[in-house]
Structures are given as C-alpha cells and as structure tokens.
Amino acid sequence: MPREAEPSNIERAFILEALRENTRLDGRSLLQFRDLNLSFGAEYGNATVELGKTKVNVQISAEVTKPFEDRKFDGVFTITTELNPIASPAFEVGRPTEQEVLLSRLLEKAIRRSNAIDTESLCIISGAKCWNVRADVHVLDFDGGLVDASCIAVIAALQHFRRPDVSVDGENVTIYTMDERTPVPLSILHHPICVSFSFFQEGEIVLLDATLREEQVREGELVITMNKFGELCQIAKMGGISVEPVTLLNCTQTALEKVKEITSVIAKKLESDALQRDVSGLIAEMSAENDR
Q1: How far apart, in whole angstroms, are the C-alpha atoms of residue 51 and residue 140?
Q2: Considering the entire predicted model, what is its pTM?
Q3: Is 121 exposed, middle or buried (0-12, 13-18, 19+ CB in 10 A)?
Q4: Share of the chain above pLDDT 90, in %
Q5: Angle at the Cα of 11 (from 7 to 13), degrees rounded to 5?
Q6: I need a labelling partner for 46 at 20 to 30 A (CA). Which of 12, 60, 143, 155 fits?
Q7: DSSP states along the chain
Q8: Are 259 and 225 in contact (CB under 8 A)?
Q9: What pLDDT is attached to residue 91?
Q10: How far apart, in whole angstroms, are the C-alpha atoms of residue 78 and residue 60?
C-alpha cells in the first residue's frame, strides 16, 4: 500500500528542536491557525476550504427517499469522504486508508451524531417520503489539518445549501424548481467545529493545526469539537501519550476561541455570498425586463 514519504532523521530532529524553542517551520506561533480561505461555488451547497496548503471541497445534495423503518418521522443525513490520489500519493481510489476511516468517524460524530441538523424537518410524509441530504467530502490537496478543514467545509456547505420547496396534497408530493419557488435552507440547530491539537515531548509541547511534517513527528493528537456557545460535542484522543487534566482544559479554552473565530468567518462569507447572489439576481431581472 502506498505511503506518505516519511521525514528523514535530520528533518525530524530539526522540527523537534525548533519546537523546543517555540519555533515552527512556517513562522506561526504554537497556537496559531494557518490562513483560512473559504469560497462558495455557483450552486448552492458547494464550499471549498483552503487551510494552508490543505484543500477540501464539499458538495451537498438532496433527494427524496423513504425514511428508515425505526425513524419514520426523520429524514436521512449522511457524510461520505473521498481521499483522491491527486491530494497525496498515500491515497488510493477504492481502498480506504486508515486516515480516511478516521476522518469519516470523526466527522460522523462531530456533525451527524451531535444532531447539528434537525432531521425531523427533512420529513415530508411520515413513513413514506423524506429528504436524504448527503455531504460529499473531496480532499483535493493534503498538508495536515484534514479533520479541521473537512469539518469547516461541511458546516459551511450545509449552511449554504438550499433544498427545493415541496407541497403535500394527501399522498401526492410536488417538488418545485428554483424558478417556481424560492429554495428552502436546512434547519441547522448548531454549528460544531473541529479543532486539532498535536503533542510533543511527552505532552509538554502543544501545537495547534499541525502541518503534514509536524503530524508525522508528533506523539499524540487531540480533536475537540465545540460550537460557539461552548457546548462540547466530541473529544477524540489518538496516540499513546497521556494528557494532563490542566492541559486538556487549556486546549478546550483555546478551541472555544478558535471556534468562535471560525464561525464568524463562515457567517461573513455566507453574508457576502448572499449579497452577491441578490445583486446578480437583480441584474438578471432588470435585463429580462429590458428585453421585454
């Protein structure tokens, strides 16, 4: 199975020695995120996140399906991940790596199991028809911080997505196009964001948003998922190193600050995109009026 090229002993020693001196290769402080760039596509529900050199695209789609037998009043929400070989030579099509399985589980716990989406609002006819909302995560470039970038992209895409409006007459369901009726946003209860920490020197050095090289030499990892209200959705600890309670509390406080910053960035980007779409729609309407 292909693997990512491991850092040499000299590289490993250099990175660790730099961290002991509170220095990172890219010049950031130990608890500093890389530059976050969020953009939306022409279609609703398409979001691309760039976290440093890591790039993730998420596409949200929805179709009418039958609900599960044991959840007749709920719709369906699923997350699928795809790690393309174009992102890293360690990724293969059709052969899920350990990292892809871990990414899927963390996103599943962070977003779906935390009930970020109100699945009851996706129900059309109880026990017969509901919306199946699907988030497809595509990793386009990989340089560490994959969980954080993917989670941000999914949350942004879900807020950006609009599903077609429907009407119910008995057992008959009518689905309207976007030209016939204004599409409907999803009912999102809260916005969980993942923040990853890396540990070095038996937990004495704590790093935020590690790059690929830093991830390859770390001793442990901690993923904290929170929303801007400080509600803890998930704590995932990977690696054999132990974490002191005080360190865990400090990481939680740092994560809350970063979650608030990221949530604010997403809100501003959504507002900017909505304004741009309103302007484009107004221009198109005026152009059509002139043609008439």
Answers
A1: 12
A2: 0.92
A3: middle
A4: 72
A5: 120
A6: 143
A7: ---PPPPPHHHHHHHHHHHHTT--TTS--TT-PPPEEEEE-SSTTEEEEEETTEEEEEEEEEEEEPPPTT-TT--EEEEEEEE-TTT-TT-BTTB--HHHHHHHHHHIIIIITTT-B-GGGGEEETTTEEEEEEEEEEEEE-SS-HHHHHHHHHHHHHHH-EEPPEEEETTEEEEPPTTTS--EE--B----EEEEEEEETTTTEEEES--HHHHHH-SEEEEEEE-TT--EEEEEEESS----HHHHHHHHHHHHHHHHHHHHHHHHHHHHHHHHHHHHHHHHHHHHHHH-
A8: no
A9: 80
A10: 10
Contact 175, 164 (CB under 8 A): yes
Yes or no: say if 154 and 111 are a contact pair by the CB < 8 Å rule: yes
Tokens in use for 149?
Answer: 């970038």
Name 222's bridge partners: 197, 237
Sheet holding 205-208, edge to edge: 205-208, 193-200, 220-226, 232-238
Phi-psi region of 139 (alpha: psi -120 to 50; beta: other; left: phi over 0): beta
Digit-coded pLDDT (tens) for 203-218: 889 999 999 999 999 9
Length of the chain: 292
Instruction: Look at the block and give the residue holding tokens 């398409």.
Output: 46
Average pLDDT, the chain: 89
More confident residue, 6 or 94: 6
Neighbours of 275 (CB within 10 A): 10
* Residue range 84-96, pLDDT digits in tens: 888 887 787 777 7
Amino acid at the residue 218? R
Output the six-digit token pair for 43.
Answer: 């279609």
Question: Which token pair is 288?
Answer: 């059509």
CA distance 188 to 7: 42
